[in-house]
Amino acid sequence: MYGDRHPLIQKTSAERFIFGMTLIQLLVVMAAGKLSYELSRVIPDLPVDNFMLRHFHQGIPLYAAAALVFLEDNVTGRIMAPSLFDKLSSRFRRRIFVYRREGD
Fold first, then answer.
1. Which tens digit of pLDDT belongs to each residue from 18-76?
2. Residues contacting residue 28 through CB under 8 Å, at least 6 positions apart
3. Which of 30, 90, 95, 102 could serve as a FRET partner for 46 with CA atoms 20 to 30 Å apart?
4. What is the DSSP string of 73-98?
């Protein structure tokens, strides 16, 4: 009746595309991978004998993006990116003070 939606619209889970990732997760990881690749062409390797440690700093954008789109907040159970965006937007929102007049 009123307020009911078609069963196809009432999706409860996100569609998974490649490697079990949603489209947003895939795009974010691809963009971060491209940024890591471009940084690896500019930033020199670390002077360490181990291959993984030598190139570790070049993947920092990819690690950060993967953490934002895959890790969940312990309190709310939401993914970190929307949770972090909500926290920052509420922190830096425009405040209207009671003692100010509307025209000032």
1. 778 888 889 999 999 999 999 999 999 889 999 899 999 999 999 999 998 888 888 87
2. 65, 68, 69, 81
3. 30
4. -TTT--BHHHHHHHHHHHHSPPP--T
Q: Is 32 exposed, middle or buried (CB count within 10 Å of its CB: 0-12, 13-18, 19+)?
A: buried
3-state secondary structure 16-67: CCCCCCCHHHHHHHHHHHHHHHHHHHHCCCCCCCCHHHHCHHHHHHHHHHHH
- What's the pLDDT at 24? 85
One-letter amino acid of 65: A
CA distance 68 to 84: 9
CA atoms of 34 and 43, how far apart (whole Å): 14
SS3 69: helix
